Every structure is written in C-alpha cells, then in structure tokens.
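job 3f2a | input accepted
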Amino acid sequence: MDKPAYASYVEEIEQLIRRVSFVIKCRGRDILNDFDITPPQFNALLLLAEHGDMTIGDLGSKMYLASSTATDLIDRMERNGLVERIRDSNDRRVVRLHMLDKGRQMIKEVLESRRRYLDNILSAVSDEDKRVLTDSLSSIYELMKPGLEK
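job 3f2a | predicted structure (150 res):
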C-alpha cells in the first residue's frame, strides 16, 4: 500500500527544518564567537530575559542540565559580569539569578547580528513568501508549544 500523500510532505518538511536549523545553529555559533559567549550561556541569558530571575535549579531544569553543570555555567557567566546571584528577600536560603546590564546588552547585540544575517538571506525571498513562511512557522510553533511548557 502506498504512503498517504502527506507522508512525503512530512518527510520533506522534517528534512528542510533540520537543514535550516543546522545552518542557523552553525551561523549562530559563529556570531557568538564574535561576542565571546558560548551557546549554553546565551541560551541561559535568553531564558532569564524571558522568565525573569530564577534559581539555578529552575534554569538548569529549563535547559535540561544537571545541577553541577548549571552551577558551572552560572559561575562562568557571573565571572564575565553577565549575571549575579541574589538572595531571595523572603527566604534567605534561596538564591536567584539576576541578569546584569552587560547580559541584556549581549542579548541585544547578538540578536541584532543574527537578524542582519537572516535579513541578508531573506532579501532574496519575495514579501509574499516571507509572509507565508511567517504564518506557517507561527502555526507550527503554536502546535508544538504545549510540549515545551514545564
């Protein structure tokens, strides 16, 4: 029996998403090298920007890191002036991570660089195709998002 018609689309879409993701990941690492920050450090900054101050345990959980790995990551980020540890005012046993101005500036500059790269690539794509791509990616993300919430 033949595969359903949509099965070939699923295979092609999965392959294209994987290829585009790989290129973005590689180019993203090149950009991060220009800023002297590692991909896990940048991901940690993005999570802090999105969720606000959180404990190392919470951050490690969101990044799927072991506690010791998360602690090492934060130690390096703290030494580089990107984050600081702050004792919780309600419970002095709890230590929260707080992003510093240097961390916020780092996010801004890295994202600007990434967007310039993507803008350069997308300049060869029609406005209509960009709109369709945006709508399609938004729809796919909304369908996938519930699986990410912890």
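job 3f2a | The CA atoms of residues 85 and 97 lie 5 Å apart.
job 3f2a | closed
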